[in-house]
């Protein structure tokens, strides 16, 4: 069996280092030359400073400014952390055992580091606050959606819990507050093909074989608003938001559907009225039937 390549750098503030493999071919003379071409967002002067300070390492230790380019070699380094606006809401821990951590995530907090959200993410916060450096996500929840997220404490069991979601063995229920249309027949199952283009904020429904499925049920009505139970069978990007928008009842507080609206980084008002309410599954380690339910409520209804 091939031995797993371990990181040559520790975490920093709960954030894993970048692991990069150099291409198998190329005409670069040094690692510095390759990184200048490969990471144009990083100034050459910053790359050179990181090499001089020993902040970029290979399997045998820190690389110098003149370190030669070795095809296929692995290197590790920490990206400079972005300046982030603190998300002023706590993460509530609902369950913790030897293998599994289940939390109630607030709105506006990303699940894992991506783009400009690194330290202000559920994963990084929990690693620091609970002293669990090997914590990893079993799945992901959209940054603007609140509710249940599962994390795996023991690295060797991560695959077992992730497989539950990949194989659609987790029963998921969401709650949403959206417009009410008396002419819309509910309950109904929505099936469509959703396409999300890289670099474009909003996804769209396009012609073709369906790759998404959601059952939509009306639970209650109050004036021109409805409270809905959403049962997704698939997990496409923004699936629930796209499907309700396609029915003509976009979710209250949605800044992407039906139209993209810009929001300031420190604007935590009017959260998206979408909540990951229930997760139910058979635990792949213990064989126990588990059910978790969010304690949060949607302000647009309560």
Query: How many strands in all?
Result: 15
Number of helices: 5
What is the distance, rounded to the nearest whole angstrom, between the alpha carbons of the first and last residues? 55 Å
Strand content: 25-35%
Order of helices and strands: EHHEEEEEHEEHEEEEEHEE
Helix coverage percent: 10-25%
Query: Could you name the ranges where pLDDT drops below 50 across 5 or more consecutive residues?
Result: none
- Identify the overall geometry: globular
How much is the radius of gyration in Å? 22 Å
How does this structure look, described?
The mean pLDDT is 95. This protein has helices at residues 31-38, 44-52, 122-129, 158-166, 239-246; strands spanning 18-21, 57-58, 61-62, 74-77, 92-96, 100-105, 136-137, 146-152, 171-179, 188-195, 204-206, 212-222, 225-232, 274-282, 289-293. The radius of gyration is 22 Å and the shape is globular. The longest helix is centred in the N-terminal third of the chain and has 9 residues, at 44-52. The protein is α+β, with helices and mostly antiparallel strands and 302 residues long. The strands form 3 sheets. Strands 5, 6, 7, 8, 9, 10, 11, 12, 13, 14 and 15 form an 11-stranded mixed β-sheet that branches. The protein contains 5 helices and 15 strands.
Q: How is this structure best summarized?
A:
The chain is an alpha+beta fold and 302 residues long. It is built from 5 helices and 15 strands.
SSE arrangement:
Layout: E1 18-21, H1 31-38, H2 44-52, E2 57-58, E3 61-62, E4 74-77, E5 92-96, E6 100-105, H3 122-129, E7 136-137, E8 146-152, H4 158-166, E9 171-179, E10 188-195, E11 204-206, E12 212-222, E13 225-232, H5 239-246, E14 274-282, E15 289-293
Parallel strand pairs: 8-14
Antiparallel strand pairs: 1-4, 2-3, 5-6, 6-8, 7-8, 9-13, 9-14, 10-11, 10-12, 12-13, 14-15
């Amino acid at each position: 069996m091939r031995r797993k390549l371990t990181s040559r750098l520790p975490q920093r503030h709960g954030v894993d280092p970048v692991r990069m493999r150099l291409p198998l071919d190329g005409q670069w003379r040094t690692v510095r030359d390759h990184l200048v071409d490969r990471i144009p967002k990083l100034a050459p002067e910053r790359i050179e400073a990181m090499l001089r300070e020993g902040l970029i390492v290979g399997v045998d230790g820190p690389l110098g400014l003149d370190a030669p380019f070795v095809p296929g070699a692995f290197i590790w380094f920490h990206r400079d952390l972005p300046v982030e606006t603190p998300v002023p809401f706590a993460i509530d821990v609902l369950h913790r055992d030897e293998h599994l951590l289940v939390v109630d995530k607030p709105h506006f907090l990303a699940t894992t580091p991506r783009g400009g959200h690194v330290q202000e993410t559920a994963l990084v916060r929990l690693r620091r606050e609970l002293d669990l450096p090997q914590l990893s996500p079993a799945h992901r929840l959209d940054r603007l959606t609140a509710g249940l997220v599962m994390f795996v404490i023991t690295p060797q069991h991560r695959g077992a819990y992730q497989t539950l979601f990949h194989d659609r063995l987790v029963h998921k229920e969401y709650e949403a507050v959206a417009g009410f249309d008396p002419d819309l027949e509910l309950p109904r199952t929505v099936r469509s093909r959703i396409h999300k283009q890289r670099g474009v904020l909003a996804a769209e429904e396009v012609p073709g074989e369906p790759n998404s499925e959601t059952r939509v049920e009306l639970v209650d009505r109050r004036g021109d608003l409805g409270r809905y139970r959403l049962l997704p069978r698939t997990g496409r990007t923004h699936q629930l938001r796209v499907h309700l928008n396609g029915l003509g009842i976009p979710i209250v507080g949605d800044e992407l559907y039906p139209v993209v609206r810009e929001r300031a980084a420190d604007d935590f008002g009017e959260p998206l009225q979408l909540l990951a309410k229930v997760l139910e599954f058979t635990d792949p380690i213990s064989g126990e039937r588990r059910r978790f339910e969010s304690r949060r409520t949607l302000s647009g209804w309560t």
